[in-house]
Please model this.
Amino acid sequence: MTAEPRLDKLSLHTRISLVLTALASVLVLTLGGLWLKQTHESIREEVQAASRVAEQWLNVAAREVSARPGGWDGARLLAHIRAVGRIRANALEVLDARGQQRYLSPQSSYKPGRYAPAWFRAVVEPDFSVRRVSAGELTMILHPDPSRASVDAWDELRAMAGWAVVLLGALFLAVRYALDRALRPLGQVMAALDRTGHGCFDTRLPVFPEPELGALAGAFNDMANRLAEAVNDNVRLESERALNQRLKARIEAERRAIARELHDELAQGITAVRALAGAIAQRTTEQAALHGHAQSIVAVTGQMQDGVRTILHRLRPRHAMDGLGADETLRRYLQLWQQHYPDIALGATLAAGPAPLRDDLVQTVLRLVQEGLT
Model:
């Protein structure tokens, strides 16, 4: 069993067309109601006028028959009535003094055998009272008959309803076609939004001639321009960040290489020189001049070793960060710096917070502290 389509699933063109067609249908139904009321009054006036004319004619005919020589002659009156035949919008019945039917007018030859539907006749046919005309022993009864007028009204209503259906259908199609042409740029807007959503930020809309759609296109183009600028800024920032990371990695590599050269070459050479100077100093205790120079070399090489260790610590601080937090790493560096410069009073308040910092952030902070102390 398939469910009927809901109105909200219809397109905007169809919904607007249906609404306008429904409003036009209400107008047509209202005009139809007014037409039915006017038709009702027209049939009343037409049948009443025909009944009055027929009644007057019967009275005149009865007087003429009575005024002829020989007095009243019912047969002559009946012959006169039969000669006239059908009376417009009325059925004529003649009864004698005993109530027996002496004459009944024939059925109308206009649209014979056709009648409007009962509900329609109940709407447009008024209620009429019969008219009686007495002529001697005869009683002539006029029965108003609006059936032919109601048939004409029914045929007219059917024709108007057919034209109304055709015109409403044409209105629906015309409105839908006009809306389709007017809202056709919305398809371009939807396509542009879809392309922009897929990353095509160079998508732009043309300026539409309609004021509303033109404003919409302008707003979309402004949004696309700002979005493209934001994307370009993000790309530039990302490129700069990547470049900074590469430069930082290159600098760290150079630091490690320099530290390795200092440790493997210079530090070993200084250690060897100090060892030789110490040996010379021990063997030249009796030679004051040579012993003094050897002691000077030992002192200078010791200072050089301290300087190399300081340089190595500054070049390769990561060994001091392994397994330590930011507070402990900075504290150890400050203690080492204080040992090298005991004459300078150094105070520090460290509060890195409960969450551990990344190693790159700790290294950056350590570099800042080193530069500041230097």
About this structure: The CA atoms of residues 301 and 364 lie 32 Å apart. The longest strand covers residues 138-144.
